[in-house]
Amino acid sequence: MRIALAGLATSHPFTDARTLADHADLVAWEPDPARRARFLTEHPSATLTDDLPSLLATDPDGVVLTVPTPDLADGLTQVLARGLPCLLNKPAAATPDQLRRLDTAAALAPNRVMSSSVLRFAPALADLTFDRDDVVAVRATVRHDVGLWATGYNPWQDDPAVGGGTLVSMGIHGLELLVALLGAEVELAGATTGVRHHGGLRSEDTATLALRWSDGITGCVEVIGATEIEFYEVTLHLRSGEVRTVIEPGDDPVEGLGYRGMIEAFLGLVRDGVTPVPWEQTRAILKVLTTARSATVQA
């Protein structure tokens, strides 16, 4: 099997490659020289190409696409035009315009498109059981520090108009968990953001999203981007009490946070041709996030 890594724009494809290397030969493309050099240091037997068309010309079995968010739709179009399954590293869209273009691209072959927060595949989430009819309200809390962006690292990720900033890049973790549990019939009821600690950010270090599902369940996502600890918590409020789970890095973050599980699910897509994450769920998540981003930028 051959897997192509199209872009190394964030930390995620480096983590993905370490798991993929146990299952496939790797080929990669990335325009940044430092990232290319780092990748070759970690994977000296991998092949690097000069651009995306030459990467796709190596006839991979699947593609992991990680480029700056505005370029994802064009990249996905090229991948799907070759009939290849594609994993889009999160977030796949940060603005309503980006989502419109991405939706058009994904329509070429939605069953071959997979995009998700890794937390969907965390073992702790799989252990959560509940009766949907008993759910009254839900909450997801995301604690992940974004101080690195305040130093100027990957500035496009922290730009609300480009990569979406903290609300989008970290908010997706909480929203993904709730949609994975409750489904895609969700809409944004409100959003607010703030800066409490990391003053050098272009976006924010705290955010809250209010949500409403079509059957009346209400929920919220709390994003804490100024924090010394990392964890992700889901609480389901039931008529009889509550059900709660916490996702933590643990001794093996690749396992505990779902990185390994996501790659295993992607390899299933490569083998079977059917995405494990329905496009309608991904689109619902991105619609909430891009709507929230647009509303809070205007505010």
Automatic annotation (TrEMBL):
<dbReference type="InterPro" id="IPR055170">
    <property type="entry name" value="GFO_IDH_MocA-like_dom"/>
</dbReference>
<dbReference type="InterPro" id="IPR000683">
    <property type="entry name" value="Gfo/Idh/MocA-like_OxRdtase_N"/>
</dbReference>
<dbReference type="GO" id="GO:0000166">
    <property type="term" value="F:nucleotide binding"/>
</dbReference>
<dbReference type="Pfam" id="PF22725">
    <property type="entry name" value="GFO_IDH_MocA_C3"/>
</dbReference>
<dbReference type="InterPro" id="IPR050463">
    <property type="entry name" value="Gfo/Idh/MocA_oxidrdct_glycsds"/>
</dbReference>
<feature type="domain" description="GFO/IDH/MocA-like oxidoreductase">
    <location>
        <begin position="134"/>
        <end position="227"/>
    </location>
</feature>
<dbReference type="InterPro" id="IPR036291">
    <property type="entry name" value="NAD(P)-bd_dom_sf"/>
</dbReference>
<feature type="domain" description="Gfo/Idh/MocA-like oxidoreductase N-terminal">
    <location>
        <begin position="17"/>
        <end position="114"/>
    </location>
</feature>
<protein>
    <recommendedName>
        <fullName>Dehydrogenase</fullName>
    </recommendedName>
</protein>
<dbReference type="GO" id="GO:0016491">
    <property type="term" value="F:oxidoreductase activity"/>
</dbReference>
<dbReference type="Pfam" id="PF01408">
    <property type="entry name" value="GFO_IDH_MocA"/>
</dbReference>
<keyword id="KW-0560">Oxidoreductase</keyword>
